[in-house]
Amino acid sequence: MREPGVVIAGCGAISAVGCGLEPLLAALKNNSSGLRAMEKFSAPRFQSNIVGAVPENGWGERPREPGWAGQSVATTAREDARPTRTDNSAWWLATEALTQARAAAEEILQKISAARTGLVLSTTKANITALELISENRSCSETARRHLQANLLAEDLAQAFGAHGPVQTVSVACVSGLIAISQAAKIIQRGEADAVFVVGVDALSEFVVAGFTALKALDPLGCRPFDAARCGLSPGEAGAAIVLVRDDFAPAAKIKIRAFGGSNDANHLTGPSRDGSGLAQAIRVALAAAKFSPTEIDFVHAHGTGTPYNDAMESLALQTIFGDAGPPVSGAKGMLGHTLGAAGVIETICCVLAMQNNFLPGTPRLDSPADGTPKNLLREPRLDVRVKNILKLNTGFGGMNGALILSHG
Amino acid sequence: MDKISITAASVVAEADLKSARLGQRFGRLDLSSQLALLAVAELKINFAEFANGRVGIVFAASAGSLATDVNFWNGRHGVGGPSPTLFAYTLPSAAVGEIAIHFKLTGPDLCFVGDGKNLLREAADLIRRGETDACVCIFCEAVTADCGKIISTAPVAAAHAVLVRRGEGIVELREFDRDFKALCALISQSKSAV
Description:
heterodimer, A: 409 residues, alpha/beta, Peroxisomal Thiolase, Chain A, domain 1, 2 domains, six-stranded mixed beta sheet, five-stranded mixed beta sheet, 12 helices, 15 strands, 30% helix, globular, B: 194 residues, 7 helices
């Protein structure tokens, strides 16, 4: 029996370039960067204070999730348990993005019951801020503490947004977002739900910046993906949400989740395989699942962290699959920073915006491409280009690789 | 449609870690990775019989990486700051990476935070879709005393694992809403009895 198709019915995002899809689209078209210096991440405690933080005026007044007081989310019903930006920015980011995405898909979602609506959360650290507060005996709401556990964050999001179907919490390092999208599509294809909210979230925290500082993985000048002078990543934060639905509920929706491929390098916990073979394997699996040849890919949206090893590995993988005449390639981390569990979701939204608006994004903060990087690496956006098939890549600690193919009908 | 079955199961607890012989790196892994790696080793599977890239790992951690998160963050005031080694284990999926490295498993990975209710369904789905020929499923509980205080949970250190593959086995997978831990324990006990 043919599995149903899965299409994108709505998106939402909050990130270093602002709140909503409009600032994200503008940044993509202008090739601008949201990276900036933040005093709290300065030396000597941290290796770099250049981060992809949501701008001060970009947060909105408070979480806008529906039914805040009316829903029976036990731990959030009390006023004193309500999360704040200070103690639970993960919840804030997630609810902002999901509110936007749900509004964009409202007409379609009216045809689908809550019982047939699921949610897949992608995160690496959930509300890790609560651990920082608790360890210093600072004020921390009951909900913020609860959302240290990613699965409880997912449950509360599902309840607050009326997703009473299957709920999953995916945490596969920086590939989490792509795997969450793949899982959501599978839930629909298996007939377990008609709509699934995919939410990617990770907030900036001292915990994460201290960790990457310990690994000496940050670029003091801010990340420069694929650049000859690149020397590390820049942490970022984001909330990103995509509403996926079964295609017969949304005949006008044009962007389809075509295929996913995953693999593991089985090589090193924090470093990628040097030859790119693991990522190449994931791409091959995705191409085979889509029944595509490499020439059918019009554009590759790369992981592109800005670390020397990642970008070199990714370039080798692309060379292996596409050879010298590969499709255009670019990456968004010079604009958004590395948003970890949100990365796959918000970068997929970048691809959706490119497809919908007929352009290819550039690679912000790339100045001089390093030797061995893809020949068709885009420094600047390319406008007036119709894109049919995009390959979106992410890789992560633990050797994980993911390759997602989106198709524009 | 071909049958999909569980062909091996194991249960390990913290006490079992002392006698584990899994290489020099084993002692440097975090608790979750040690438990998960040992549980997979106890399945006693010859993974070389599978083609490269055809074994997946489907993992769930009851409390994510919170126990290691607490250890890492408690070390922030130490000499040299927080440990870079521990930071790598502050991802719930670190154990998946360690299993992949140790057993050279290059297939697809899934990692969930929370209970193990999705494990068998997702493993069977990967096999049915032809993405893998087999999957190792692991449910890991690693809650230390410090971690347990924060999330009001009793300390626990255990891992349950099964191998799921196409064909005949100990238990055929037809429905998936089964208690993963109870199923592992049942199969492990029946094997011991034999």
